Amino acid sequence: MENDIFKALADPSRRTLLDLLHKSDGRTLSDLCGHLDMSRFGVMKHLNQLEQAGLITTRKVGREKLHYLNPVPIRQIYDRWVSKYAEPWAAGLTSLKTELEREPIMEQKPRHVNRIAIKATPEQIWQALTDKTMTSKYWYNGSIQSDWQNGSSFEVWNPQGKLQAKGVLLTVDPPRKLVMTWQLLSFTDTADEKPSRLTWEIEPHAQFDGVTLVTVVHDEFEEAPNTSRILEAGLPVVLSGMKTLLETGAPLT
User: Fold this and answer.
1) Which of 9, 15, 139, 166 is least surrounded by CB atoms within 10 angstroms?
2) Are strands 163-173 and 153-157 parallel, antiparallel or unpaired?
3) Is this structure's pTM higher than 0.90?
């Protein structure tokens, strides 16, 4: 997978496409074509290579196919090649920006999307997401606690007994989908903000047996800008930690 990422990044046209999506995410093919001196087919080919490498994701909004950055593979490269050398100053470099909400009437609201492929079953990923002894190993030491029923509340506690986050479970559909409100209590500038929303989508990979795609969408954060900023940088770390834990049995750090 790393080879695919490095190969995708080696081409200047593909780097230009990533720069364009970083500047303004959720773009159509026609929009992107207007910025490159090549045929529509050529741009499509480059976008397909970026998607195959996991560097972008696509979503349908009405009749349009929109393209978004996926920060998780960049985060994985960072974890392996950068963090051990430059962690103190590089912690925020891999948060690549927003995705727009898909609505039937094309109403556009800010969203952040993260996706990762994990060599595990959907059931194993669901357990990692809902088991308090597992979340404490990859989610900033946070132990998540709930009865995991629709409409129930949940809480995330750190080892010192401090409440880190809380929310309500809006959709509990194991092992495929989990939707929760999210109120981050760890920081003074987030504790009083309105809850935002996290949606976890878990699906078997279409091509590789034993591999599962995990997509996390953070949205409804218009009244929680500080929470948005922190999760934009933090969720790629959480997903990388989940992947490492499930695939190796050891925490990321």
Assistant:
1) 15
2) antiparallel
3) no
| Helix (H) or strand (E) segment spanning residue 7 | helix 2-10
Q: Which residues pair with 167 in a beta bridge?
A: 154
Of 123, 113, 134, 114, which is closest to residue 204 (Cα–Cα)? Answer: 123
CATH class of 111-248: alpha beta
DSSP class of 38: S
Sequence ranges of the domains in the chain: 2-95, 111-248
Identify the architecture of domain 2-95 in CATH: Orthogonal Bundle (1.10)
Q: What is the pLDDT of residues 146-195, one digit of tens each?
A: 999 999 999 999 999 999 999 999 999 999 999 999 999 999 999 999 99
Chain-centre distance of CA 237, in angstroms?
9
- Token pair, residue 215, equals 């997509």
Find out whether 167 and 148 touch, Cβ atoms under 8 Å. Answer: no
Q: What angle do CA 197, 18, 49 make, to 5 degrees?
A: 100
CA distance 67 to 17: 10
For 222-233, the pLDDT digits (tens) are 999 999 999 988
Q: Are 138 and 251 in contact (CB under 8 A)?
A: yes
Specify the long-range contacts of residues 171-179, CB closer than 8 Å, at least 24 apart: 172/148, 174/123, 174/126, 174/130, 174/148, 175/121, 175/122, 175/123, 175/125, 175/126, 175/202, 176/122, 176/201, 176/202, 176/203, 177/201, 177/202, 178/126, 178/129, 178/130, 178/202
Q: Which residues of 18-56 are buried (b: 16+ CB within 10 A; e: fewer)?
A: bebbeeebbbebeebbeeeeeeeeebeebbebbeebbbb
Inter-residue contact 98 to 111 (CB < 8 Å) = yes
Q: How far apart are CA 134 and CA 249, in angstroms?
A: 10
